[in-house]
Amino acid sequence: MKRAMAGACLAIVLAGRVIAQSDPTWRQPFDPIRIVGNVYYVGTRGLSSFLIVTPAGGILIDSGEAESVPFIRANIDRLGFRMSEIRLLLAGHAHFDHIGGHAEMQRLTGARTVAMEADRQAMETGVDRSALGAQGWAPIRIDRVVKDGDAVSLGGTTLTAHLTPGHTQGCTTWTTDVMQDGRRYHVALVCSVTVNEGVHLVGNARVPAIAEHYARAFRVLHDLRPDVFVAEHGAVFGLEAKAEKARDLEKGQPNPFVDPQGYQKFVTRSEETYLTQLRAEKK
Ligand SMILES: [Zn+2]
Q1: What counts of helices (H) and strands (E) characterise the chain?
Q2: How many separate domains does the chain show?
């Protein structure tokens, strides 16, 4: 039995079958916080969800696991925003801990759901088709399918979909530009790039091209150069420490979520972890 590293989808592998195991922080509340401009964190302590507020309604990115929905809903309420104003539902990747709440969110909001082409079938059928092959979720109605480079717009905010595969085949990093206090910030909502415990990069029967997928993801991520980055688990981008700083921020002090060096370190470190595993498997 092996336990996954922190920050990844936690799973235990028992007799070759993956059984999801949730990290306790996934089901702990976390006060919503403004990341930058019109981008807000509305997830639980351990599972990210982001609300982008526009004059034409909201965009929700990631719905956590099925159990996250009441937490996300409470955070959206606390921001004074209405669930019925959410127009678009986006995802980072098709794993139960990031889209498990999608079907319920669709029911609560009536939002149009967007999926990256390579994760579409998994989302629609509720079956994890990635190399992890963990538990599924309630099937999701997909209203729009996007591919690498496509843009999704609402109320003056445009998000660009970047295919950063590996963790799942359709793992999607979303980028956007937002304004705050007269400055423009380039923001990346980064898809998971960890290799889940028990997943092999060489000779992977479920996803034969998985190593090339990750290589592509890192090439794309190296080119993004965001001012602000967030990810699908708070630990990856230092959510708790940055939120604590941001909550006591006095006027004029720099926003702790603006962290271009932190982004470069995150990409370099994640790529090194992937390359170390790849080299070890090739031996
Ligand atoms: Zn995942």
Answers
A1: 8, 15
A2: 1
